Every structure is written in structure tokens, then in C-alpha cells.
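Entry 0007
Protein: Molecular chaperone SurA
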Amino acid sequence: MNFGKTALRSVAFAFAIFAVPMVIALPAQQAAAATTVKVVVNKTAITSDDIAKRAAFLKLQRQSGNLPAKAREQLIDEALKREEIARVKMSVSTADVDASFARFASTNKMTTDQLTKVLAQAGVGAEHFKSFIAVQMSWPRLVNARYGGRNKMSTQDFVTRLKERGSKPVTNEYFLQQVIFVIPEAKRNSITGKRKSEAEASRKRYPGCEQAKTFAATMLDVSIKDLGRMLEPELPPDWKPLVEKTAEGGTTGTRVTEKGVEYLAVCKKQQVSDDYAAEVVFRSEDLMKAEKGENPNEKKYLEELRKKAQITST
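Output (C-alpha cells):
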């Protein structure tokens, strides 16, 4: 069984969980070993079991070398990232992680139960993989949120890029409104289906952005938020394909999020080619290039976290 390479991208400009070739070749029985704490990152313990699971994951990726050592370093980095993600409250939801897990399974022509069994047989486990997915989805959002607004191009760089292109790039400008059918966490399992049906039904009766708040007042626990101006490269990856295919005055399909069931209304859509739009396009292109290699801002951020962290081997 092979897992083909795929990419699943998240907010600001990118997010990805990557799948690499995985070959299942297991011994008839794996010996159980006592779990011990190997590293403490600030207050987070990394155990021998954690390292064994990550080493098994690296093996499925056909990586070579000292896999336990590589696994240990990856888990230290992830512990730092996870702590920072929690601190600034930018974690993706459990629903988003489960959806990515399901897409991964589907891409590789498996059900989620089949993927769970494969991961268990390989010594990785579904929960370890989902924890990995959560960090891979959340971390790029955090990096982009921190550095995205700071990377203003110099006038010289901007002029050079314009000369190379020959003209200012054109992109779509949106004015969006967010409609949320709120679901209390305690009722998430019991009413999500009902709220999704209500949200879908409301899309057919949506009166337009100007009347939306009056419209929402006729329904129970429905929130309206004006998101204002947003250029196409700035659209969150989770929403981007839905927004792009929605006409002005229309609404996107619904998504289940940590807040409830949501959809976006496209209040206005037009093409723009001003200086700000051009710079946003150029920065987006640079970030897309960085995704294919190493994002220097990501490395810088992680180095800062490592310098401040207490990392103790036991």
C-alpha cells in the first residue's frame, strides 16, 4: 500500500499536511516497552512512546539515518510550536483536523477506519498523526499572522518586480460578511446536523448584506460579522475556493467550524490593480515559493522559541 504525495493548505497564505510514500512492512508481533520520559520541553513531557511513534512515522516516509534522534528533534520543535499556538489561541479546530484526516484517507482510497488501522499496525496511531496534522495546519497561520504584515517590500524591490512583470498584477477584491449559526460546545454532537440544515435553508432566503442583521434577528443564535475588504491572496485557505466560485450578492457553501455552522456572503466583488493589491500579490507569490522550500520566517520564529525554552533531557 502506498500513500501518494498530497498537500492540504490552511489561513493567511498557506498551511499543509504532507503525505509521503508509506510502505507497510511489520513484524508479526511488536514488543511492548515501558514508557519513560525522555525530554521535557518547558512543561511538556516527550516520552519514549512518543519518540517510537514518530520514528515509525518517519520510517513510513522512507527516511533514513538515526530515526529516533530525528523523531526527538521533531517532537521538541512541535512541542514549542504547540505551546506558542495555544498561547496566541490560533489552533485549528478538532473538526478541521478530522476533516483533513478524512481527506487524507479519501485521497489514498481508504476509509478513515482503514487509515486508522494502517497507522495502528505501523506503530504510529491515528491520534499521533492527528496531533501532527493539527500543528502542521496551525503553525503556518501563526507564522503568517506574525510576519505577514511586517514584510513590506522596499520601494526598490516593488519597482523591480513591476518592471519584471511589465504591469501591475490584477486581483479580486472582496467585501465579505460572515454568517454563523452558533453551536454551544456542550451541544455540538447533538445539534450540528440540525444547525447545518438551518444554515443551508437560510442561504436560499439570504436578503443581501445590508439586510443581513435584520434577517439574522428572526432566527435563533445566529451571528453576523462584517469582515470588510479582503483581497484574493488574503483569503483564508479553508474559505478561498468557496469564495472564488461565489458570485457577488451570493453566499458560499457551509462549513462546520469551532464556532458552529458558517457561510460567507460576498457583498461586493471587483478587480483591482492598485499599489497595495500589487504588493499583496507579490508577497503571496513569495510565500508560495517559500512553501516549496524553507520559509525563513518559520525558521526564525522557531529559533526564537528554542532560545527562550527550557529543554531538559532525562
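Curator remark: The first strand starts at residue 6 and ends at 8. The longest helix spans residues 126-147.
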